[in-house]
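Q: Start with the shorter request: fold the first protein.
A: Done. Sequence, then structure:
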Amino acid sequence: MSSQEAFRIEYDTFGELKVPSDKYYGAQTVRSTMNFKIGGVSERMPVQVIRAFGILKRAAAEVNQDYGLDPKIAKAIVQAANEVAEGKLNDHFPLVVWQTGSGTQTNMNVNEVISNRAIEIMGGTLGSKKPVHPNDHVNKSQEFSGYVQQIKYGVARIESTMPRVYQLAAGGTAVGTGLNTRIGFAEKVAAKVAELTGLPFVTAPNKFEALAAHDALVELSGAMNTVACSLMKIANDIRFLGSGPRSGLGELILPENEPGSSIMPGKVNPTQCEAVTMVAAQVMGNHVAVTVGGSNGHFELNVFKPMMIKNVLNSARLLGDVCVSFTDNCVVGIQANTDRINKLMNESLMLVTALNPHIGYDKAAKIAKTAHKEGTTLKEAAIKLGFLTSDQFDQWVKPKDMLGPQ
């Protein structure tokens, strides 16, 4: 097969994309694989979820037929959905769990697979969306400096744990006594590992502690858990500040990476923010497991080692991947919506706080309440109440002077 034949061209609302000719998925699935390279094959959406989607899509098709869906189209969708439910098309679902938080892209992955398979059943051309459309038929009826400091602190916390993580228990044998090893063995092994890896590994000063407890891993996991908490807060703030465009805060303009809804045309979701918050939740869960594991060092040996290291490594991988994805696909493209910011700022009733030193809290509060009740500006309310002049208001209420101590 030539390189030209290896792909077909499909379109979503953002433009055209190359789709592998031997796959039933379409453009939106491809776009998601481009935007969410997080965790690799092991982090793909569980096949149980995909198969459940097959059952749901079959049920929807049968009900939609009762409401007027073309029986021929319904029959083809049912057959394709059955194949999904039976696990026959698992190779056509490449998306990872870490995507839009609503799972919209996996829903569209299922829609595209069932649509194209149904098109094939009916003798059509893959990617044509005719006579079976993935949405119309298959889915029918269904504050930045503070953020920088948070991340800096998070990285510093992780780095501060590493000296204890680099301590090796090798040479402690079964319970930490070093029985049957040669004098100097532990130190030389640690030095050799350090030489081979380029990392500052050392022998643990107390092998009993190193074997019976894994507090260093709990500490490292805790530091990553703190980073996850920071990322959850940051991603949610950015998501809310970017809400809109017609309603919501709308103070930030977020990059538009892919279509956001299989139901509402033109909708765009803060998908990178959603992926960050899901990863953060997973890391928090991993830390709970690591904490339980660390507490189960009975006498001279901890017996939760495999689970602990699995979760620590998983947290490190997910945090690293999602931070790169979030940076490349969202943070670097964020723009301030200055017109919206200025509008909200100038209409904010809280600007009245600047008047407290000049006219007192009670009068300032009355100005705010009057402006709110009558739907006027603070300035208009202040002048109407006779508390100050227009020039005084302009002199005392300056948002740029309210950014810090004066």
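Q: Next, the second protein, separately.
A: Sequence, then structure:
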Amino acid sequence: MSILIDKSTRLIVQGITGRDGLFHARKMKEYGTNVVGGTSPGKGGTDANGIPVFNTMYEAVEQTQANTSIIFVPARFAADAIMEAADAGIRLIVCIAEGIPTLDVIKAHQFIKQKGAILVGPNCPGLISPGKSMVGILPGQVFQKGNVGVISRSGTLTYEIVYHLTANGMGQSTAIGIGGDPVVGLHFRELLEMFQNDTETEAIVLIGEIGGNAEEQAAEYIRNHVTKPVVAFIAGQSAPLGKQMGHAGAIISGTSGSAKEKIEALEAAGIQVAQEPSDIPALLKAAKDTTRDILKLREQELVDLELELNNMVDDEENNNRD
């Protein structure tokens, strides 16, 4: 199946006539994504590389039946663009912009929840279901269709780890970057649930980093709800306290949010944590083998139990005849 995007995705590019919007609209279309339109106020009725341009999201959705949007507008306009998309009926919104004021993101997120929409980002690379659809700025050539779900707080680490997965014959069902800001839309927990319920996904790679407690919450959720093999990598293991490292959300406050805390939480939940990105494929293979062995053992236990119950029934019937 994959999650969130597939061949049925109908995409609107908000800010399509800007440099980044125009470039990535073309790249997504070349990948095979069904880019049905774009928006740019005052430029409705024109086209961008053969893609129709509309003045508003309401007009774009009404005329194209789009269900997904990606936002390439400056940070100061991005929160309004998120809300405009949800108000027009878009169900999946991907926001690439970095530097949106936190309170603006909170306001936009509350608004779109009331509309029943889902936000990926902000400050994220987007997502890809290899061979089906790409909504974002990811390098499509490193991805390969398969059964490994990838969730990440880091864009470039996603590309590196996926490169190693693909090189080892481990394709991906869907890979998604959730964003590196303190406040984002979808979190690890929601995506873990989606991958757990996805019949195409057989294993999960979780890529975290310092700051916040998303990885600790993910570890607790995995312990209680995820039966598929999971391996992880945590970036920032040598990061100093109190210093922002790249993303706005990648900062250790006191001792909270450190790589050590996150690794300990994940390992306590039975998740193998890689020391290097290149270690992921070997750990994933081992986790898959372990899960397979456990399932075989449980199947044999069920067979033995059924046989024992049948024998008990036979003995009871024989006793009744006597």
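Q: Describe the second briefly.
A: The chain has two domains: 1-123, 139-317. Residues 139-317 form a domain with the Rossmann fold fold (CATH 3.40.50.261).
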